[in-house]
Design a protein that fits this description.
Elements: E1 9-13, H1 17-26, E2 31-36, E3 40-42, H2 44-50, H3 57-60, E4 61-63, E5 72-75, E6 78-81, E7 85-88, E8 93-95, E9 98-101, E10 105-106, H4 118-134, E11 137-141, H5 145-157, E12 162-166, H6 178-190, E13 193-196, E14 211-216, E15 222-230, E16 235-236, E17 255-256, E18 269-271, E19 276-277, H7 284-302, E20 321-324, E21 330-333, E22 337-338, H8 340-348, H9 353-359
Parallel strand pairs: 1-2, 1-9, 2-5, 9-18, 11-12, 11-15, 12-13, 17-19
Antiparallel strand pairs: 3-4, 6-7, 7-8, 10-16, 14-15, 20-21, 21-22
Helix pairs in contact: 1-7
Length: 364
């Protein structure tokens, strides 16, 4: 940028894993506005362990006030996007040369804030934590990363509970080499978890919060538990993107993009993360590939280069995945299946908490 030239305006909607990092990395290169409706960033993977260790919440709820040095963080809800601006629910309008929509996904409580209030999120987490502490039996419906990690965390912190992990798939993590799922199943069973595979739940009473009751499996079995966790996946938050012209949603609810993560007829609008159907899963690991591409590409475009001259985004062929079963054991896929030590060192011990606290300008 030549001396005396005004910085181009970048407006980012959503302060989750995509939005906060893109905003932080572009802060020195553009006039950045980050729009986020929630009071603070919450680190979702660590919310699982926080159910067993409530004091952890103080480490994983991160305010935005130290994130940017020159840009601004605006608390509000975006309701419309045009070729040149983002409008909020309160009527304020933010002009933009480039717009990034990173509105993320929603999930059953208490793994993500259900609304704007951190106090409400803390209360939801505390309520479930108390229910879990009192429960003698737990059923977890859904054996993706959240469900599997939840089973492992409970078994590690509160041994002796009757824990049942239910999956509709015939193996754990079927998209990965069989060894990963086989070893995770074996370790869960050694920890006292009953792993039920190849069974759908026919009568899940709630999708939003844990509850006491029973679930009926497709083979007729009934699993009764003091606490049933519905952990059946994220729902992409695409209401804002759906208002753009030329948007193409897929059955999962995610939004198709072109080669440069643009979802609509507006060439200045980009999307990433859970809302973007680009061949990546709805995981933080996917973002670890999308964010660097988006940051690098936007820096080039901010310097006057055409987006079509930039290298297109290429998704993971098979993304790495880290699956701790509590702070000490677990398995991961890092282009080969690895076990307890690497999983513990990379994720299980600290859950990346120091990394994110540093990013938000907070002490360890």
């Amino acid at each position: 940028m030549r001396i005396g030239m005004a910085k181009k305006k970048v407006v980012i909607v959503g302060g989750g894993y995509v939005g906060y990092e893109v905003a932080k990395e572009l802060d020195a290169h553009a006039d950045v506005t980050l729009i986020e409706q929630c009071e603070a960033f919450v680190q979702p993977p660590a919310t699982i362990r926080a159910l067993l260790d409530p004091a952890l919440l103080d480490q994983i709820v991160l305010p935005y006030d130290r994130l940017l040095k020159t840009g601004q963080v605006v608390r509000g809800r975006a309701v419309s996007v045009s070729q040149s601006e983002v409008t909020l629910e309160d009527g304020n309008v933010y002009p933009a040369d480039f717009i990034v929509l990173a509105t993320g996904s929603s999930y059953a409580a208490p793994f993500k804030p259900a609304g704007d209030s951190i106090d409400d999120f803390r209360k939801a987490s505390a309520d479930v934590s108390a229910q879990l502490a009192a429960a003698k039996s737990v059923a977890i419906v859904g054996a993706g990363a959240v469900g599997t990690e939840l089973a492992g965390e409970i078994a590690a912190a509160q041994p002796g509970k009757d824990i049942t992990l239910i999956s509709s798939d015939d193996t754990l993590f079927p998209m990965y080499p069989a060894r990963l799922g086989t070893q995770l199943k074996r370790k869960l069973e050694r920890a006292g978890v009953s792993v039920v595979l190849g069974q759908r739940v026919e009568d899940l009473q709630r999708m939003d919060v844990p509850y006491a009751g029973s679930v009926k499996l497709t083979d007729g079995r009934v699993v009764t538990a003091d606490l049933v966790f519905p952990v059946v996946g994220s729902k992409p938050n695409t209401a804002l993107i759906q208002t753009l012209p030329g948007v193409n949603a897929v059955p999962s609810g995610r939004i198709k993009t072109d080669k440069w993560l643009r979802p609509s007829d507006f060439p200045i609008v980009f999307i990433a993360g859970d809302i973007a159907d680009v061949g990546d899963g709805m995981t933080i690991v996917a973002i670890s590939r999308q964010n660097p591409w988006l940051i690098r590409t936007l820096k080039q475009v901010l310097n006057g280069q055409a987006i079509e001259d930039q290298k297109p985004y290429a998704p993971w062929k098979m993304a790495p995945i880290l699956v701790p079963l509590g702070p000490k054991i677990g398995n991961s896929w890092l282009f080969a299946t690895v076990g307890d030590w690497i999983t513990r060192k990379m994720k299980g011990k600290e859950l990346f908490i120091p990394k994110y606290r540093k990013a938000f300008g907070l002490s360890r």
